[in-house]
Amino acid sequence: MSTDGTVEAFRVWKRFRTDAQRWSVKTQARYALAHLRGDTDEFWRWALRDVTLHIDPGEAVGLVGPNGSGKSTLLKVLTRVMRPYAGRVEVSGRVGALIQVTAGIQNELTGRENIHLYGTIMGLTRAEVARHFDEIVAFGELEDAIDRQVKFYSSGMQMRLGFAVMAFLDPAVLLVDEVLAVGDAAFQQRCLNRMREVLDNGTTLVLVSHDLASVESICKRCLFLHDGVLQADGPAREVLGAYRTWIETMAEALRNTPGLLRLLKVGVEGIEGDSPRTEEPLQVRLVLDNPRAQETSIFLGISEGPATPIFVLRRTGQLPAGQQEVRCNLAHLPLPEGAFWLWVGVFDKGRRNGLLPWHPAARFDVVGPKLMPAPAGVVRLSPVHVEAEWDVGAA
Amino acid sequence: MSGLPVEPPLAPPAELLYRRRIDLASDVRDLWRERTLIRTVAERDLRIRYAQFLLGPVWSLLMPLITVVVFTFLFKRIGHLNTHGIAYPLFAYVGVLAWNLFSSAVSSGSNSLLNNGMILNKLYCPREVFPLAAIVVAIVDTTLSTVALIGLFFLYKTAPTATAIWLPVIFVVELAFVLGVALAFSTVIVYVRDLSQILAGILQAGLFLTPVAYGMDQVPHRYRFAYCAVNPMAAVIDNCRRVVLSGRSPNWNLLAPAAVTSLLVLVGGYVLFRRLEGGIADVH
Fold first, then answer.
1. How far apart are CA B200 and CA B203, in angstroms?
2. How far apart are CA B255 and CA A249, in angstroms?
3. B121 touches A at CB < 8 Å
4. What is the CATH number of the domain that holds A285?
5. Cβ B47 vs Cβ A109: under 8 Å
6. How far is CA B61 from the centre of its chain?
7. In this complex, do B40 and A99 lie within 8 Å of one another by their Cβ atoms?
8. Is the Cβ pair B47, A103 closer than 8 Å?
9. Chosen domain end from A198, A224, A248
10. What is the rounded distance in angstroms from the CA atom of residue A295 to the CA atom of residue A338?
């Protein structure tokens, strides 16, 4: 049992066809001709290039990277759903994959029948499914609906059904792809707790997520994949740092994107031009070059690395032509100590056309108290600082 | 270009290219391990089918009976087909049973990978499971339909002849053929979906190009060997009738070429399946 749960990938390559119309006779004929000439390179693009990694049993590894970087492909290669073009993959022990939990669910069958079917597909014996049946039903909160056809389930219930089966699969290696993005908050929390339990039992975990906070809370080690290439592999803090820096560099490049309206100057300041402080006033100043007077919506957002803003502010109204200074004042800044990004976007009346695309415009530091830690395994949605007074005494 | 440090070589070295080994022994072992799964998937398909219809399993009885009624009208009443003393409905029903097993196993087996694409694309399990489960479903269905055959025997006050003990041999030939065709088509159809339509057409024509409604005696003697070598189902159906209704042992002169063809199709189908199966998640 001790070797169960090792994940080994040696110089893995994977490619896909690029042609938009894969099925047209014309494309196929062109491909056949190219094949005869012995040069079909233009028909393929690389999804994974030379990926080598070794994960020890019981390790929890986060896999991060922008969209289309090959994260899901890598997981599929590890689960053997896809075969690599070159290289070797070895995963020892039973593999559980939370790639799309509703994939194996059959609409026409009842919840009960689905649990049996899904469990067997994932490699459980009938006896094992029967043994865990009640736990699975309880975990998915499906007691009332278990004998109903799944097509009459809500999408949330279908999700819970899929996850509940996976949760009790007891695999040696668990691969998780972005499943935490669905389900309500309470269920997400239960999934996270279950993942912790599974980890404590010595299961190897590979977690793909864009939610860097939850990756950081679960994984000690991280992989950063970009364009099919493994760019970083190491302690979570370092790799996520590298990933955030890369996002910032990309954002920097986006900043000078031409729009109809130009952003000439950006400033984020605290009182009297200092660094902004927690719970104190903050002023954002923008200088915009507006080609013509028009009704606009100006959006400001604050984020912490990834693109999802912590909060967004909006001002809708007439914007005169020419160079305009826009000031926005916050009375009490609700952010803890740390580095943040200011995002700016200007849209026209219908908010259909971006006059200035939504993009990160400035980076700023906040001085103040540190963000309070959450209990292990709990993911905070936003790093917001809230002043609170505590009082503990005999009841 | 990306501003990131790692820049891999442009292409993988040739010695790393993935090659699929075809290893029959280990495949059979894997499949044996997955027998529960085959059973579960077959059960699922049966449940889904019966859950959607009011009459459920009764349809397995009704459909071949309807075919036989139509055949009786066409071939017996209008065509005055000579069945050498065997009641025509019995004669036709045996043929329809053997043919229905073939055609439903082949059509559902061939479309099984396409229909289970959602699962194949997300979860791993040996892919043979799906065509095999489809064949199991067809066998269960055919077994249900034999209930009507028993009824027909009572109706015409006859019984199956003792030579029916040869049936398993004939069945093995049919099964090999079915398996080969289903394995081959199931993977190719994922790549070239038009084949699904083409196959449906072939099966429809096959019902009349195979002696289902008529007997082998309608085929000139000198063509029978070649006919059975090209279409093993002709030999299968003719021999089913011989052993069940006429009380004669199988006609080996026809069953042998059919068996050879079936075996070749099975081997070819298996190799093709192994070759193509690896890429289906890429194109699904």
1. 5
2. 73
3. yes
4. 2.70.50.60
5. yes
6. 18
7. no
8. no
9. A248
10. 35
Assigned token pair, B80: 């005055």
Q: Which amino acid is at A178?
A: E
Q: Which residues of A touch B (CB under 8 A)?
A: 11, 13, 16-17, 22-23, 49-50, 76, 79-88, 95, 97, 99-100, 103-104, 106, 108-109, 113, 116-117, 120-123, 125-126, 149, 226-227, 229-231, 246, 249
Cross-strand partners of A309: A303
Chain B interface, best mutation among A17, A31, A82, by max B CB count within 10 A: A82
| Chain B positions in Cβ-Cβ contact with residue A106 (cut-off 8 Å) | 44, 48
Choose the closest CB to A16 out of B12, B119, B282.
Answer: B282
| Mean pLDDT (10-residue bins), chain B, 284 residues | 71 80 82 86 84 74 87 83 84 93 95 87 85 94 90 90 92 96 94 91 93 88 92 95 91 94 96 88 76
The residue type of A156 is: G
The answer to whether residue A20 sits within a structural domain is yes
Which alpha helices (DSSP H) does chain B contain, by range?
Answer: 24-33, 35-52, 58-71, 88-115, 117-122, 129-155, 167-191, 194-209, 221-230, 232-241, 252-277, 280-283
Structural domain that includes position A267? 257-366
Q: Is residue A19 part of a domain?
A: yes
- With a cut of 50, which residues of chain A have pLDDT below it? 1-2
Contact A104 B122 (CB under 8 A): yes
pLDDT of residue B225: 93
**Which residues are bridge partners to B91 per DSSP?**
none
Specify the pLDDT at position A2.
Answer: 40
- Do A181 and A264 sit in the same domain of this protein? no
Q: What is the pTM of this model?
A: 0.76
Question: Taking CA B155 as the corner, what is the angle to CA B154 and CA B157, rounded to the nearest 5 degrees?
Answer: 60
List of chain B residues whose C-beta atoms are within 8 Å of the C-beta of residue A123: 125
Does the complex come out with an ipTM higher than 0.85?
no
Q: Is A152 helix (H, G, I), strand (E, B) or coil?
A: helix
pLDDT, one tens digit per residue, over A21-76 is 666 777 778 888 888 887 777 788 889 999 999 999 989 999 998 888 899 899 99
Q: Would you say residue A197 lies in a domain? A: yes
Which residues from A are below 8 Å from B12, CB to CB?
A: 11, 13, 50, 85-87
CATH of the domain at A36: 3.40.50.300
